[in-house]
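Chapter summary example.
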Amino acid sequence: MTAPEAGPVRTQRGLERLIYFSDAVVAIAITLIALPLVDSARDVASSSTAKFLSDNSYALTAAGVSFVVISVLWRDHHRLFERATGYTPHLLRINMVWLLCIVGLPVATVLDVYSQRSDRLAVGLYVGVLMVAMAVIRIEELILYRAGMLADLEQITAVDLAVRWITVAATGIALVVAVCVPRIGLWSLLILVVSGQLEALVQRREKAPATPVD
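The structure predicted for these 214 residues follows.
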């Protein structure tokens, strides 16, 4: 009888390569955010720094927001893979979707900056890419959870997994607001501050010890 063919070997080295590759893509994406501003800054020689800051105030704000957004996405990705003890083919494929979103954010930033402020597609594309990136991280967590490849597996509850989707839902609300009222632009993302506080509150209440009944 022929022995069954062994599946692909997945080593710790393979997980490390996945993480290193993801980190490299994030670093490149953050660099790309600043490149349009670098080109604009070359015109300072024929004008002034004050005029550059005034003419590019929205572009600077958008670049700053995008830097923070990608940093937060990387932080969540880093925290998840710090807990990962392995990986699966599904995780590898879905992580490429996350990287596609990261690479797409600088492009969406440029479209939002250089399009008219009333361009619903530009602002909707930016917030939409952000929402997908956030959702993918949560899907990656579910993949690792179901595969039993999380270091803190025994401490995770269904509430923990569910509450982390609050920010994704809030981003969906921000997307609707941004598309319906495009002049609000990236300011619609301020709702994430509230959603972050709500998520932290729910997690604290979940982890709080039960009060004994007399």
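To summarize the output: Helices lie at 12-41, 49-55, 57-83, 89-114, 120-146, 158-163, 166-180, 191-207.
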